Structure formats: structure tokens, C-alpha cells
Amino acid sequence: MSMLVWITFLPLLGAIGIAFLPATNTRLLRQAALGVTSLVAVLGLFLWSSFDGSIAEPQHGFVRDWFTVALGAGDVPIRFALGVDGISILLVVLTTILMPIVVLSSHGHIEHRVKEFFVWLLVMQAGMLGVFLSLDLVLFYFFWEVSLVPLYFIVGIWGGERRLYATIKFFLYTVAGSLVMLVGMIALIYGLQSSDLMDLIGRTGELPVATQTWIFFSFALAFAIKVPVLPFHTWLADAHTEAPTSGSVLLAGVLLKMGTYGLLRFGIQLFPGMAVSYSSVFLVLGALGIVYGAFLAMAQTDLKRLVACSSVSHLGFVVLGLFALTEPGIRGAVLQMVNHGLSTGLLFLLVGMLYERTHTRMLDRFGGIATVMPLYAIFFVFTVLSSAGLPGLNGFVGEYMILAGTFEASPLWAAVGVTGVIFGAVYLLMATRRVLFGALVHDANKKLADINAREIGIMLPLCVLCIWIGVQPNTFLDKTAGSLDALAKRVEQERIDQERGQAIGRIEFDAPSATTEGEESR
Amino acid sequence: MNAYIEQMGLIAPELVLTALSLFVLTWDLLKKGRNSDHIGYATLVGLAVTGWLLLQQWGMLGDKGTQTAFGMVTIDRFGTFFKLFTVGSMAVVTLFVMLDKNERKHGIGEYYFLLIGASIGAFFMVSTNNLLLLMLGLELLSLASYSLAGFHKGSKRSAEAALKYIVFGGLSAGVMLYGISLLYGLTGTLDLGLMGHAPEGSGAVSLATQFDASPIPVAIAVVLVLAGFAYKVSVVPFHFWTPDVYEGAPTPVTTFLAVGSKAAGFAALLRFVGALFLTDGVDASIVAYGDRIGFLLAILAAITMTLGNLSALRQGSLKRMLAYSSIAHAGYVLMGAASMTSEGFAAAMFYLAAYYCMNLGAFGFLIYFEGVTGKDDIDSLKGMGWRHPVVAWSMVVFLVALTGLPPTVGFYGKLILFYAAIDAGLAWLVIIAAINSVISLFYYFRVAKSMFLTEPVPQVPMRQHGLAGILCVLAVVTVLAGLGAFKDPLRGWADEGPASLEIYATDAGSR
Questions:
Q1: pLDDT exceeds 90 at position B261
Q2: Domain boundaries, chain A
Q3: Residue B390 has what pLDDT?
Q4: Which residues of chain A make contact with B416, given a CB cutoff of 8 A?
Q5: In Å, what is the CA distance from A499 to each residue of A202, A268, A493, A515, B319?
Q6: To the nearest 5 percent, what fractions of chain B are helix, strand and coil?
Q7: What is the reported pLDDT for B297?
């Protein structure tokens, strides 16, 4: 059996196993969860080392027949197809190695109903990995929904004070999006008589343009809600703020990437023509998201909410880079997905550590923390700089590539994006000043214990990765090279075709044969 | 004489059930109302025998094709599917009655008798092409249901439920009979097959001929009959009885009404629509009219699911919420009928099978929880999740399935319904159904929220292992079927239904 099957289903088996352990022995439960997630992480590293970045096609494929549906002219086989390519490899590995850290980080704040927590956490991991690995539309949808229910319980049971409101809001937003996607998906499968992603890529041009357009937008809506792209971002601030620390790390680290991954896989790769036609819509939304998210973050008085809003801004960069539709833009966006997972994950961990000690997240309750918690301060400043895009750390590489790629496509929106870098530095450094520096005015803060070895141990691997990406990004970029180069070329070809098609359309307006010829060449 | 015995053999399941009902009634009289659980066990044994006979019949039908007994009872796989469905739901309902803490343990023999009576009605209703027998079956089912709804004689709500049910039921039966009499007058036959396609010399006139001559009476007759079925499956605007009856009736009875009775109603509806408009040999003119009927059903489906879901949002009582949710699900199933294709019919049948698992489970949870708290409002579920974890997590599975999310059979059922509807060119209906699923998510997960996300209120811990076991099994089946464990047999069985109705398989291009 393929390694991918193990990676996807080991967490699920672990969840079933943990469900049978005694609920009272939390130590055993933590060890079991850590064991399972570490094993998956090791598998993830094996996958990483055996993955050849120069190949564009999916690797480690695993295909079995699942069921068939009678649709239109014949039976459409729905297959259980897994595979990994340059688009998904970074996210898969990120998911596997982030998970042990999430389990370890739950130590401080998940004290009741520990068993249920780990069961849901592992089910969620299986769902997320399945989303990144599926090469079949129906299977993708299956995992997409499987990853949804666990978060409902994770936020709803172990969350903060306003958790009920936050969970319902998050759940309704995402399900609304995904059901619209389901309709589009069925229409696509119906139209092309296939549910095999690799087969569908390259064939979507066969559909009438109007059908393509609405299917494309039904997909884009679901992913835009998940990312979240600007008008749909309100669920994120609530869900992030109310989730327990480990839930927030998972949300920021992986779950939101399902949205950007979807935009890339099912937006750009599946519908290159539509992506070219409507790229400006996403460029505008991405750029506005960067600026608006930054302004939101500046206005926050709650540290965790500030980090949540900064996510909106950072993911705006990813959307901008993706829909610049240039090679550096797309590659930078894929790298930036990982960067955001690392930096924002670290920020949430840091906020959580502070919250466990002070039981508040209000910025005005802090100040001068650096004097009592020097080690904490070091990590905090490091993370802030990585998130703000300091050269030498991960954020810089991603943001630079995205902005360079966007400039090629549209200098205007690149300029707007650049302002986001400045605003990002503003709110992050402002937060640093208010938390770490200044006078230690609150008496309660004078006796805070500095971070312990476990907490350092959780953060160190992430910090190492941040530096690694900042100094030697090629380690990671090379793995994505094959697939993303091929994708960028295809999109470029599509753009040229469309421009030529329009030119032909203008010259020979009355000759329909010219346009069909243009379509055939796709 | 031999032929007579042979035909008796064909209706053996019905005969067993009839004998069982009489046995149950006399035994209860002889025992003078002492412990009624024995009668429950006897019922279960009788149902098991019936189920076994039906499985034999299923196999036999595969070899020999559709059979007719006494010129009226049509034995085909479509009917047998629904009979098995009825027996299956009856068995679970019987267990619910036996395990219901709020039910007396003595002197309730007639409870079982009435339930079996209702099943016999359902049996004849789903396996006949003759409108007269169909009406008789429907009336037998209805009369038994009326008495069952009012079974708690002392309770005002139960009495109210029975009265409301009988008034609405009587009215709709009258409407339907009027429609049937018009059809009889138009075609000169009560046989649905002849109405759809009357060969030379049969003495009947096919509906298509009459439609060409005078379309309006045909339209009126068909719509009136459909109204009768719509009442049975509680499709808007014939749904007004549903919430009150479901709420007032004893919960096991509600379960039977929501699952067994509704499925029988759908079976009759599918058979009626299929025989008149979709079978081989019907004229083109009536097929065109059938498409209009399909459009009518699609509109009804859209209104039904939307109204059911929106009303369910505001309910404080779990029982009433499930009542509205069952209205909404009637809308989903109706999507399959509205597709007017054999795939659509098969999808509707598959969805009913999925609905069987998840709705029996949800009602079983309600019975469990009424046994613990004695109340049925969602707020008193607080913290149940932590006190009764097995039952509560099973309920979460049912809720996920009812919403139509993977990895449950509810998702799979909805998926093929959506496929069928898109195939039939009803994309707008699918979008409405998708939006409805989002709405339904809100109220279904209110239950989960109450169980798990709010702190428990102190209660006397009380366990009902029997019920918990049944729920657990149903939940496991719901998930396994969703993961595809039984999907091939189930899909196969559902596909057999329309095939045995001789509905020609359509592909999208030809119509």
C-alpha cells in the first residue's frame, strides 16, 4: 500500500484507538496522541525525502475504485485516488510536523475531557491530510467535510467565553460555502463525465464558457470563505479568538491553507481560463484584504484578536500572489502558505503561553513583560520579525516573491500590497512594545514565571524552520518547482490564447470558425 | 385450487402479519393484560418470519419477474423493497415501545396489534397497481395510525393529535377518492397499468387518449390523487397536521409515522407517477404532461424543504423539531420523484433507506432522553453528552447524517439525489436543497451544542442499556453505509425498484 494511505489513515486509527483508552489517565492519553502524531510526522519526513521536486505529475499515487454514479450518458466512476505533487507536498509535510507540536502545546490549557480532544484532533488531521492528498473531486469533498465537524467541537467545547457564537458562525459560513461547491462539483462531473482531477485538468475548456464561469465561482466561493478572502473574513476573527491555543495553531497553520490550496488547485489549475479572465477580481480582493486586515489588527485591544486579524492580512498576500498568475507569484504564494503557518502558529503559541500565566489577553494588561520573562521576549521578538518579513527570516522570502510576481502582472496592486508590509510592521511592533517593553505597571505581572523547557521545545523546531526558509529557501522551493513551473506555463499559454482569441475576435468578428479554432488549441 | 394456493403463497408475508395481529390480540385478551413484553417478543418473532419470507420473495422475483395475485396484488421488487423497509422500521419501533420508559408495561397488547395493522395497510398500499386496493391499504394504515396517535387516552395532547389527524386524514382521503373516481370515469379502469397504457380490447381507455381529448379533467384528477399522497408524506401545503400529531402521539408512534408510514406514502406516489407517465408504451402527449407534473413536484419539493427547515429553526421542543425536519426530508425525497427518471426514483428510494437509519436513530434518542428527563425540549438536554456519552455521540452521527455531511449515509443519499436532479435539469432545485442543508445545519447542531457545549445540569443518572445498544448499532450502520460498506447492495436494491416498475431507463439526451 502506498505511503499516502498510511499518512491519511494512521491518525484515524489513532483516534479510534484513543477512544478506547481510559478517560481518566490523561498522561497516557497525551502520550498516545503524541506517539501517533509523531509517527505520522516521521512518515511525512520520509515522504519529503522520497519526493522528487522536478516532476510535475502526482507521485506515490494510490487508486482504487470506490463507487459509480449513473450520470447523463454513462456511469462515472468515483475513485479513491490519493497522490502528492508540488502543489500539495509542502502543506502535507507541514500538517504532519505541526501536529505533534499541537499535541504538546495542549498541555497547559486542555485539562478536562482530554480524551475527546485528542480524538477530534486526530480525526481532523486525517481530514486535512485527505484534503491535500485527494485526486478525486468527490473524495476531496468527503475529506473537506470530515475536517469540518471536529473543529466545531474543538472550539465549542474547549474554547473561550464566546465560543458558542464563534462555533455556529464558523460552521454556518463554511458549510454554506462547501454546499455551493458541492453543486458546482456535481455539475462539473456531470458535464465532463469524470471525477478524476488529473483527467479533468485540461478538459474544463470543453464546457461552455457560462457553465465554466459559474462552476469556477462556486468553487472559488467555498475557498474564499475558508481562506478567508475579504468580505468573508468575519468568522475568522471570532473562531480564532475563541479557539483554544492548540485549535488556533491548527486553524492558522493548516485549516486556512485548505482555502488557499483549493484556490490554487481547483481555481487556477482546474480552470486556468477562468483564472486568467477573473484574476483582477482576486487581485483586488487580495490587496484590499492585506490593507484592511492590517488596519483591523491595528485597532485591536485583544492580543489574540490582533494575531487573528493579521492572518487576514497575511493570507491576502497569498491570494495576491496566486492570482498574479506569474511563476514567482505562485511559487511565493505556496511558500508563504507555509510561512504563515509557522509564524502565525508561533504567535498563537506565544499568546497562549501568556494567557495561561495572566488569564488575560488585553494589551493594556501587559507591559514590561520582557523584564520578568526574558526568554519569552526573545521568542516573541523573533516571531514578530519573522511575521513582519525581516530579511533572513521566512516571511521576507515569501512576501518578496509574491510582490515581485504581482509587479509583473499589475504594478498597481503590487504597490498596494507593499503598503501592507509597512502596516504589518506597524501593528506587530506596536503590539511588541505594548506587551514586552515599557514600565511593568501591573503588580500581578511582576511574578510571572518565564517559559519552561517544554515550551521552548515546542517552539524551537518552528523557529529553526523559519530561519531555514529565510536563509536557504531553495530546499523548499525546489520541491515545488516541477509542478508549479508546469502550472505557470499553462496559465501563461492560456493568457496568450485568450489575448489572441480576443484579437482575432476583434478583427474577424463575423467568422465564428476562428474562435472555435482558438478553443481547440487549449 | 393449485393456482389459488400459489397465489396465497405470493401474499404469504401479508398472511403471516394478519395471523400475527390476530394472535397478538387474542393472547392479550387471554392474559388479561398482564406483562405485555411477551407480546412484544412475539411481534418481533412474527416480523422476523415476515422479513425472511420477503427476502425469499425478493430472490424469487429476480428469477420470475413481476407476479400478480388475485388480479389485484402486484408483487414486484419495488413493493418488496418497501415491505422490507416497513418490516425493518416496525421491528425497531416495536423495540422502542418495549423500551420506552414512559409507556406502561401492562395491558398494552393492542398497541402492538394496531402497529401490525398499520403495517398490513402499508404492505397492500405499496404492492398494488389497483387504485381500489391502494385506497384500502391507505385507509387501513390511516385508521390504525389515528388510533395509535390517540393511544394515551388520558393525555390531552394525544387526544388532540388523534382528532387533528383524523379530520385532516378524512378530508384528504375524500379528496383522493374523488380524484380516483374521476380517473375511473375517464379511463374505465382502476388499474394503473391500463391507465398508463391500454392495449386494444382491454375495455379501458388510456389516460393519454383522454388527455388528448380533454386535458383539464385529467389534470384535475391527477392533481387530486397526488394531493392525497402529499398529505400522507406531509408535503406542503398538506403538512399542517404533522407537527401537532407528531408532538402529541406517543414517541414510538411518531417514529412509525415519520419513517414507516411516510415511506409507504412515497412508495404509492412513486408507483402512481411512474405507472401513469414513465412506463414503456405511454404516449408522447402524456409524457409531456408528466414533465409538467414533475415540475409541479419540483416546486412542491422546494417549498416543502424550505418551509420545513425554516419552521424547524424556531422549535424549542426536540420532538417538534424532528417533525419539521421530517417535513423537510419529504422535500428532499420528492426531488427524486420530481426528476421523473428511473435514476431519480432509485435515488429517492436510496434516500429513504438512509432516512430510515438516521431518523430511527434520532427518534430513538428522543425516547431515551424522554425516559431520562421526562421532557422533550432541547434546553433540558444540557450536558447530556457527558452523562450519556454513547447515546449522545450516536446522536451526533445522526445529526451529521441528517444534515447530509460525510462520512455518513445521509451524505451519500443526498449526493445521488443531487446527481439525479441535475441530470434531470433541475439545477435550481439542487441549489435550493443545498441552501436548505445549511439552514438545517443550524438547528440540528443546536442539539449537539446543547449536549456538549453547555455545562451539565444535575440529574439523576439513569441508564437504559437496551436503547443505547440499538442507537449504537444504528449509528455504526449510518457511518459504515456512508463509508461504502453496504453501498453496492443498497444501491443495487434501490435500482431494482424502478426497474421492476418497468420505468424505462432514460439518458439525459433523449428527453
A1: yes
A2: 278-471
A3: 85
A4: 69
A5: 19, 18, 10, 12, 61
A6: 80, 5, 20
A7: 94
Give the whole-number percent of chain A exceeding pLDDT 90.
30
Cα–Cα distance measured from residue B97 to residue B82, given in angstroms and rounded to the nearest whole number: 22
B430–A152 C-beta distance less than 8 A: no
| B175, B152 contact by CB (below 8 A) | no
* Residues in contact with A388: Cβ distance below 8 Å, sequence separation at least 6, in sequence order: A395, A421, A424, A425, A428, A429
Gap from B88 CA to chain A (nearest CA, Å):
26
In a domain, B228, yes or no: no
What is the total count of domains within chain B?
1
Of A69, A146, A164, the CB nearest to B406: A146
Nearest Cα of chain A lies from the Cα of B508 at a distance, in angstroms, of: 5
Please classify residue B107 by burial: count the beta carbons closer than 10 Å to its beta carbon, then call 0-12 exposed, 13-18 middle and 19+ buried. middle
Q: In chain A, which residues have their Cβ closer than 8 Å to the Cβ of B415?
A: 69, 138, 182, 186
Partner residue facing A190 (CB), from B423, B442, B448: B423
Domain-located, residue B403: yes
Grid cell locating B476: 455504526
Phi–psi pair at B91, nearest 5 degrees:
-60, -45
3-state secondary structure A466-488: HHHHHHCCHHHHHHHHHHHHHHH
Residues of A in Cβ contact (< 8 Å) with B438: 172, 175-176, 179
CA B446 to chain centre: 26
Q: How many CB atoms lie within 10 A of CB A511?
A: 12
pLDDT digits (tens, 9 = 90+) for A426-447: 999 989 988 888 888 777 778 8
Q: For chain A, list residues whose CB is within 8 angstroms of any CB belonging to chain B.
A: 66-67, 69-73, 113, 138, 141-142, 145-146, 148-149, 152-153, 156-157, 163-164, 167-168, 171-172, 175-176, 179-180, 182-183, 186-187, 190
Q: Which domain holds residue B402?
A: 303-511
CB A71 to CB B407 under 8 A?
Answer: no
Farthest-apart Cα atoms in chain B, separation: 75
Q: How far apart are CA B399 and CA B443, in angstroms?
A: 10
Q: Is residue B356 part of a domain?
A: yes
> What is the structure's pLDDT at B496?
78
Determine the distance in angstroms separating the CA of A225 from the nearest CA of chain B, rounded to an integer. Answer: 14
Strands in B89-128 per DSSP E: none
From A398, A444, A431, select the one nearest A417 (Cα to Cα): A398
* Nearest residue in B to A112, CA atom: B386
Tens of pLDDT, residues A296-317: 999 888 899 999 999 999 999 9
Amino acid sitting at position A495:
R
Indicate yes or no: CB of A190 within 8 angstroms of CB of B509. Answer: no
**pLDDT tens by residue, B118-160:** 999 999 999 998 999 999 999 999 999 999 999 888 888 899 9
**Contacting residues of A for B506, CB less than 8 Å apart:** none
Residue with the three cell numbers 502565525: A344
Nearest CB neighbour to B434, from listed A145, A172, A179:
A179
C-alpha cell at A348: 498563537
Strands (E), B33-187: 67-69, 73-75
Rounded to whole angstroms, the Cα distance separating A494 from A487 reads 11
Task: Report the SS3 class of residue B211.
Answer: helix
List C-alpha distances in Å: A120 to A33, A37, A152, A402, B394.
11, 13, 10, 35, 15
Label residue B101 by pLDDT band (50, 70, 90).
confident
Residue B324 lies in a domain: yes
* Residues B211/B218, Cβ–Cβ less than 8 Å: yes
Q: Smallest Cβ distance to B441: which of A142, A172, A182?
A: A172
**Within 10 A of B280 (CB to CB), how many other CB atoms are there?**
9
* Residue in A113, A171, A186 closest to B418 by CB: A186
pLDDT interval class at B402 (50, 70, 90)? very high
